[in-house]
Amino acid sequence: MSQLAMHHRQQVQAMLAACPLVPVITIHHPDHAVPLGRALVQGGIRILEVTLRSEYGLDAIRQLRKALPDVWVGAGTVTQISQYREAEAAGAQFVITPGVTESLLAHGLNAQAPLLPGISTISEMMMGYALGYREFKFFPAEVSGGIKALQAFAGPFADVSFCPTGGIRRETAKDYLALDNVLAVGGTWLTPEDKIEAGDWNAVTEIVTGSLSDIS
Ligand code: 3PG
After folding, report:
1. pLDDT digits (tens, 9 = 90+) for 166-209
2. How is residue 114 annotated by DSSP?
Protein backbone atom coordinates (compact mmCIF):
# COMPACT_ATOMS: atom_id res chain seq x y z
CA MET A 1 0.00 0.00 0.00
CA SER A 2 1.37 3.42 -0.91
CA GLN A 3 2.19 6.02 1.71
CA LEU A 4 -0.66 8.15 0.45
CA ALA A 5 -3.18 5.33 0.70
CA MET A 6 -2.04 4.72 4.26
CA HIS A 7 -2.45 8.41 5.04
CA HIS A 8 -5.93 8.37 3.50
CA ARG A 9 -6.92 5.39 5.61
CA GLN A 10 -5.72 7.13 8.75
CA GLN A 11 -7.77 10.19 7.88
CA VAL A 12 -10.91 8.15 7.17
CA GLN A 13 -10.49 6.22 10.41
CA ALA A 14 -9.94 9.45 12.35
CA MET A 15 -13.01 11.16 10.93
CA LEU A 16 -15.29 8.19 11.53
CA ALA A 17 -13.84 7.78 15.03
CA ALA A 18 -14.56 11.46 15.72
CA CYS A 19 -18.31 10.88 15.72
CA PRO A 20 -20.40 7.70 15.43
CA LEU A 21 -23.25 9.52 13.65
CA VAL A 22 -22.75 11.09 10.22
CA PRO A 23 -25.53 13.48 9.22
CA VAL A 24 -26.29 13.40 5.50
CA ILE A 25 -27.02 17.01 4.59
CA THR A 26 -28.73 18.38 1.49
CA ILE A 27 -28.95 22.15 1.36
CA HIS A 28 -31.86 23.70 -0.55
CA HIS A 29 -31.19 27.26 0.53
CA PRO A 30 -27.67 28.69 0.92
CA ASP A 31 -28.61 30.48 4.14
CA HIS A 32 -29.40 27.17 5.81
CA ALA A 33 -25.90 25.70 5.65
CA VAL A 34 -24.20 27.42 8.60
CA PRO A 35 -27.13 27.47 11.07
CA LEU A 36 -27.79 23.80 10.32
CA GLY A 37 -24.11 22.94 10.75
CA ARG A 38 -23.98 24.84 14.02
CA ALA A 39 -27.15 23.11 15.28
CA LEU A 40 -25.65 19.69 14.50
CA VAL A 41 -22.33 20.55 16.13
CA GLN A 42 -24.12 22.01 19.13
CA GLY A 43 -25.74 18.61 19.62
CA GLY A 44 -22.38 16.83 19.48
CA ILE A 45 -21.81 16.05 15.80
CA ARG A 46 -18.20 16.26 14.58
CA ILE A 47 -18.54 15.25 10.93
CA LEU A 48 -20.77 16.68 8.21
CA GLU A 49 -21.48 14.96 4.88
CA VAL A 50 -22.79 17.61 2.52
CA THR A 51 -24.32 16.06 -0.58
CA LEU A 52 -23.90 17.46 -4.05
CA ARG A 53 -27.55 16.63 -4.74
CA SER A 54 -28.51 20.27 -4.78
CA GLU A 55 -26.96 23.22 -6.56
CA TYR A 56 -25.85 24.62 -3.20
CA GLY A 57 -23.71 21.69 -2.06
CA LEU A 58 -20.32 23.16 -2.97
CA ASP A 59 -21.21 26.57 -1.58
CA ALA A 60 -22.38 24.92 1.64
CA ILE A 61 -19.05 23.09 1.96
CA ARG A 62 -17.19 26.39 1.53
CA GLN A 63 -19.36 28.10 4.13
CA LEU A 64 -19.16 25.27 6.64
CA ARG A 65 -15.40 24.92 6.39
CA LYS A 66 -15.06 28.59 7.22
CA ALA A 67 -17.67 28.68 9.99
CA LEU A 68 -16.80 25.35 11.62
CA PRO A 69 -13.05 24.79 11.27
CA ASP A 70 -12.95 22.20 14.05
CA VAL A 71 -15.23 19.58 12.50
CA TRP A 72 -14.82 17.32 9.47
CA VAL A 73 -16.66 18.66 6.44
CA GLY A 74 -16.86 16.54 3.32
CA ALA A 75 -18.82 15.94 0.15
CA GLY A 76 -21.36 13.18 -0.43
CA THR A 77 -23.18 11.90 -3.50
CA VAL A 78 -20.06 12.39 -5.59
CA THR A 79 -20.48 10.33 -8.76
CA GLN A 80 -17.99 11.93 -11.16
CA ILE A 81 -14.33 12.86 -11.02
CA SER A 82 -15.17 16.44 -11.96
CA GLN A 83 -17.35 16.68 -8.83
CA TYR A 84 -14.53 15.16 -6.76
CA ARG A 85 -12.23 17.94 -7.91
CA GLU A 86 -14.85 20.63 -7.33
CA ALA A 87 -15.49 19.31 -3.83
CA GLU A 88 -11.77 19.45 -3.01
CA ALA A 89 -11.55 22.97 -4.39
CA ALA A 90 -14.46 23.96 -2.13
CA GLY A 91 -12.50 22.62 0.86
CA ALA A 92 -14.01 19.15 1.30
CA GLN A 93 -11.87 17.12 3.69
CA PHE A 94 -13.26 13.83 2.43
CA VAL A 95 -15.36 12.52 -0.42
CA ILE A 96 -18.11 9.90 -0.23
CA THR A 97 -19.60 8.15 -3.24
CA PRO A 98 -22.88 6.19 -3.25
CA GLY A 99 -21.28 3.44 -5.37
CA VAL A 100 -18.00 2.67 -7.11
CA THR A 101 -16.60 2.98 -10.58
CA GLU A 102 -13.09 1.88 -11.50
CA SER A 103 -12.15 5.44 -12.38
CA LEU A 104 -13.44 6.96 -9.13
CA LEU A 105 -11.64 4.33 -7.07
CA ALA A 106 -8.40 4.96 -8.95
CA HIS A 107 -8.83 8.72 -8.72
CA GLY A 108 -9.39 8.56 -4.96
CA LEU A 109 -6.03 6.90 -4.41
CA ASN A 110 -4.09 9.94 -5.56
CA ALA A 111 -6.54 12.66 -4.64
CA GLN A 112 -5.98 15.22 -1.95
CA ALA A 113 -9.15 14.38 -0.01
CA PRO A 114 -9.55 10.72 0.99
CA LEU A 115 -12.35 8.69 -0.56
CA LEU A 116 -14.91 6.63 1.36
CA PRO A 117 -16.32 4.55 -1.48
CA GLY A 118 -19.90 3.32 -1.32
CA ILE A 119 -20.56 -0.36 -1.93
CA SER A 120 -23.59 -2.60 -1.58
CA THR A 121 -22.11 -5.98 -2.56
CA ILE A 122 -19.04 -8.00 -1.70
CA SER A 123 -17.85 -7.83 -5.32
CA GLU A 124 -17.91 -4.03 -5.32
CA MET A 125 -16.07 -4.05 -2.02
CA MET A 126 -13.45 -6.37 -3.50
CA MET A 127 -12.80 -3.89 -6.32
CA GLY A 128 -11.84 -1.32 -3.71
CA TYR A 129 -10.07 -3.86 -1.52
CA ALA A 130 -7.73 -4.78 -4.38
CA LEU A 131 -6.63 -1.13 -4.53
CA GLY A 132 -6.01 -0.87 -0.79
CA TYR A 133 -9.33 0.50 0.46
CA ARG A 134 -10.41 -0.99 3.79
CA GLU A 135 -13.14 1.46 4.84
CA PHE A 136 -16.38 1.73 2.87
CA LYS A 137 -19.79 3.28 3.02
CA PHE A 138 -22.39 0.47 2.90
CA PHE A 139 -25.25 1.88 0.87
CA PRO A 140 -28.18 1.50 0.72
CA ALA A 141 -27.71 -0.42 3.95
CA GLU A 142 -31.19 -1.54 4.93
CA VAL A 143 -32.28 -2.81 1.52
CA SER A 144 -28.87 -4.40 0.86
CA GLY A 145 -29.08 -6.81 3.76
CA GLY A 146 -28.49 -4.45 6.67
CA ILE A 147 -26.96 -5.90 9.79
CA LYS A 148 -26.99 -9.49 8.51
CA ALA A 149 -25.05 -8.52 5.41
CA LEU A 150 -22.43 -6.70 7.48
CA GLN A 151 -22.07 -9.73 9.75
CA ALA A 152 -21.59 -11.92 6.69
CA PHE A 153 -18.98 -9.53 5.21
CA ALA A 154 -16.91 -9.93 8.39
CA GLY A 155 -16.32 -13.63 7.59
CA PRO A 156 -14.09 -13.32 4.52
CA PHE A 157 -13.10 -9.68 5.15
CA ALA A 158 -12.47 -9.23 8.85
CA ASP A 159 -10.12 -6.31 8.14
CA VAL A 160 -12.77 -4.17 6.45
CA SER A 161 -14.93 -1.58 8.21
CA PHE A 162 -18.07 0.22 7.18
CA CYS A 163 -20.18 3.30 7.61
CA PRO A 164 -23.66 1.98 6.76
CA THR A 165 -26.15 4.53 5.44
CA GLY A 166 -29.55 4.35 3.81
CA GLY A 167 -32.67 3.49 5.75
CA ILE A 168 -30.98 3.76 9.14
CA ARG A 169 -32.98 5.54 11.81
CA ARG A 170 -32.48 6.68 15.37
CA GLU A 171 -34.03 3.40 16.59
CA THR A 172 -31.70 1.16 14.57
CA ALA A 173 -28.40 3.08 14.77
CA LYS A 174 -27.34 1.37 17.99
CA ASP A 175 -27.72 -2.14 16.56
CA TYR A 176 -25.49 -1.26 13.62
CA LEU A 177 -22.90 0.38 15.85
CA ALA A 178 -22.76 -2.76 17.99
CA LEU A 179 -21.09 -4.60 15.08
CA ASP A 180 -17.29 -4.85 15.19
CA ASN A 181 -17.00 -3.84 11.54
CA VAL A 182 -19.10 -0.68 11.84
CA LEU A 183 -17.22 2.52 12.66
CA ALA A 184 -20.11 4.97 12.30
CA VAL A 185 -23.58 5.15 10.76
CA GLY A 186 -25.01 7.86 8.55
CA GLY A 187 -28.38 9.15 7.56
CA THR A 188 -30.88 11.89 6.98
CA TRP A 189 -32.91 11.30 10.12
CA LEU A 190 -30.56 13.80 11.79
CA THR A 191 -31.46 16.51 9.28
CA PRO A 192 -35.24 16.46 8.76
CA GLU A 193 -36.32 18.63 5.84
CA ASP A 194 -39.30 20.12 7.67
CA LYS A 195 -37.16 21.32 10.57
CA ILE A 196 -34.60 22.83 8.19
CA GLU A 197 -37.29 24.57 6.12
CA ALA A 198 -38.81 25.97 9.32
CA GLY A 199 -35.38 27.09 10.57
CA ASP A 200 -36.06 25.11 13.73
CA TRP A 201 -32.41 24.66 14.64
CA ASN A 202 -33.18 23.79 18.26
CA ALA A 203 -35.20 20.81 17.05
CA VAL A 204 -32.20 19.63 15.02
CA THR A 205 -29.93 19.92 18.05
CA GLU A 206 -32.44 17.95 20.11
CA ILE A 207 -32.61 15.15 17.55
CA VAL A 208 -28.82 14.93 17.63
CA THR A 209 -28.50 14.93 21.39
CA GLY A 210 -31.29 12.37 21.65
CA SER A 211 -29.73 10.14 18.99
CA LEU A 212 -26.27 10.35 20.59
CA SER A 213 -27.74 9.53 23.98
CA ASP A 214 -29.64 6.54 22.53
CA ILE A 215 -26.43 4.99 21.24
CA SER A 216 -24.28 5.68 24.29
C1 3PG B 1 -27.26 8.77 1.74
O2 3PG B 1 -26.90 9.34 0.72
O3 3PG B 1 -26.44 8.33 2.53
C4 3PG B 1 -28.71 8.50 1.94
O5 3PG B 1 -29.51 9.29 1.14
C6 3PG B 1 -29.17 8.56 3.35
O7 3PG B 1 -30.22 7.68 3.43
P8 3PG B 1 -31.43 7.89 4.43
O9 3PG B 1 -32.21 9.07 3.89
O10 3PG B 1 -32.24 6.64 4.33
O11 3PG B 1 -30.89 8.15 5.77
Report:
1. 999 999 999 999 999 999 999 999 999 999 999 999 999 999 99
2. P
Residue 3 C-alpha to ligand 1 middle, in angstroms? 32
Rounded to a whole number of angstroms, the CA Rg of the chain reads 16
Query: Residue whose CA is closest, atom 4 of ligand 1?
Result: 166
The SS3 assignment for 93 reads: coil
Please list every protein residue whose CB sits less than 6 Å from any atom of ligand 1.
Answer: 24, 76-77, 98, 139, 165-168, 186-189
Name the β-bridge partners of 136: 162
Question: How many CA atoms within 13 Å lie on the side-chain side of 44?
Answer: 15
Q: What's this model's pTM, rounded to 2 decimal places? A: 0.96
CA of 166 to the centre of ligand 1 (A): 4
Index of the ligand 1 atom closest to the CA of residue 165:
3
**How far is residue 71's CA from residue 48's CA, in Å, rounded to a whole number?**
8
CB atoms within 10 A of CB 48: 28
Domains parsed from the chain with CATH numbers: 3-215 (3.20.20.70)
Residue nearest to atom 8 of ligand 1 (CA): 166
For the residues of 5-53, what is the DSSP string, one character each? HHHHHHHHHHHHHH-SEEEEE--SSGGGHHHHHHHHHHHT--EEEEETT
